[in-house]
Amino acid sequence: MTDSAALVRPDRRAELAAGLARVRARIADACAAAGRDRAEVTMIAVTKTYPAADVVALAGLGVTDVGENRDQEAAAKAGEVAAAGVTPRWHFIGRLQRNKVKSVIRYADVVQSVDSVRLASALDVAATAGRDRPLDVLVQVSIDADPARGGTVPDSADPDVGLGPVAAAVAAAPGLRLAGLMAVAPLGWEPERAFDRLAAVAAAFRSDHPQAVALSAGMSGDLEAAIGHGATHVRVGSALLGMRPTLR
Ligand SMILES: *Cc1c(COP(=O)(O)O)cnc(C)c1O
Questions:
Q1: Where, per the database record, does this protein carry N6-(pyridoxal phosphate)lysine (predicted)?
Q2: How far is the CA of 44 from the centre of ligand 1 (A)?
Q3: 151 lines ligand 1 (CB under 6 A)
Q4: 230: domain CATH number?
C-alpha cells in the first residue's frame, strides 16, 4: 500500500465521510418514505473527474460500488485503485463506443449504458474472449423516447435501438448477463413524472425478463424520486464528492 492512491489526506477523508453520511441518510429516508427495505438500494459512487485516492478512501468508508463514464479515465483509475489493493465493483455508466469495449470489459463489472444491438454484440464478442465470466449489463432506456442522448426506445421494434430487440440480444449473448435497466431523467422533466414512466417500462420489461431486476435510476438531485419508483441502484456523484469543475 505504498502507491499514491493509498495516501488519502485526512481532511479529504473527513469530507467524503460527511458527504457519505448525508447521502446515506437521504437514501434511508427515501426508503422509509417508500416503505422499502434499505437493503434493496445500492449506492454507486460516481467518481468521474475525481482521483483514485478518493475511490480508495470511499472503499475504506464502506462504499462497494463505483461508477465512471469515460473509458480512458476509468481504465487508468481502476488500475491505480487495484494497485492500492482495493477492488470495488466498477460500473461503466457513460456512452460507450464500440472501439472501447475491449478496454472496458477488462475492468468493468457492469456496463449500464448498452443501447444498441451493435454495441451488445461487440461487448459479447469482447467479453467472451477477454473475461472468465459473463459481464453484467443494464440496458439504458430513453425515458422521453429521444435516443439522441443515449438509451433505447421503449415500445420500439427498431432492430437496433428498440428496448425489446436490445434486451433480447443481451439475453441471448453468452458473454453477457442481462441484469436490468438504467435511465437518466430527461432534462426539463419533473423527476416524479420521469421515474413514474420508467417504472411502467421496467414492469413490462420484467414480465419478459423476470431475472433482470436491477433498476439504476436517480442521481444527486433526484434520488428520492427514483427510490420512490423502485430504483435498486442510485448513481451519486456531486452530493458525495463535491461539485465537478466541468459538467459532463
Ligand atoms: C455523472 C453521472 C451521474 C452522477 O451525477 P450527479 O448529479 O453528480 O450525482 C449519474 N449518472 C450518470 C450517467 C452520470 O453521467
A1: 48
A2: 10
A3: no
A4: 3.20.20.10
* Number of domains forming the structure of the chain: 1
Work out which ligand 1 atom sits closest to the CA atom of 113: 13
Q: Is 247 a domain residue?
A: no
Segment 42-85, tens digit of pLDDT: 999 999 999 999 999 999 999 999 999 999 999 999 999 999 99
Nearest atom in ligand 1 to 112's CA? 13
**Residue 246: inside a domain, yes or no?**
no
- The owner of cell 485526512 is 10
This model's pTM is above 0.85? yes
* Residue whose CA lies nearest to ligand 1 atom number 4: 237
What is the atom index within ligand 1 of the atom nearest the CA of 182?
A: 13
> Which residues have CB under 8 Å from 95's CB, separation 6+?
69, 113, 150
